[in-house]
Amino acid sequence: MLVSAFGAGCDDKTQEQAGQTIEPVTVNGEIAAFLNENLHSILHDDIGGEDFCMQINDLNQLPEENHAGEPFEYPDMTGIDFDTHTLVLGYYAAANGGWNLTGKELVADSDKMTMYLSIDKTANGTPTFIPKTFWGLYPKLASKPINVIHK
User: What is the value of pTM for the model shown?
Assistant: First the structure.
């Protein structure tokens, strides 16, 4: 599944090489809890029928309102240094409510990046389209499309 995502990155600060797995970095607990709880609302305008992944390279790229038009009250996001880090936000289309993300791996290539998602498809659930979200903080990434592939 091909999806495009571009951010306002600073390529001179990136260091990924073709075929390299890019490891996520730790995010403080308040920011992590906020993203875990609110990511579906943050991505509400982008959620559709295909997997999606985007880069946030600047605090101003985060939406100001949720799906109901109410302003987000973000926690103190100064814990993320966008000069040296990129926040990756996305979702995958689960065909069953019981499907759960068990892992993710971001791999750089020369002209794109690929987010490989490991999804446990053994759990039973509602057989319907359900968008499920994921995120990660990474060392600064080049502005390249990110493909999402289920393993």
Answer: 0.81
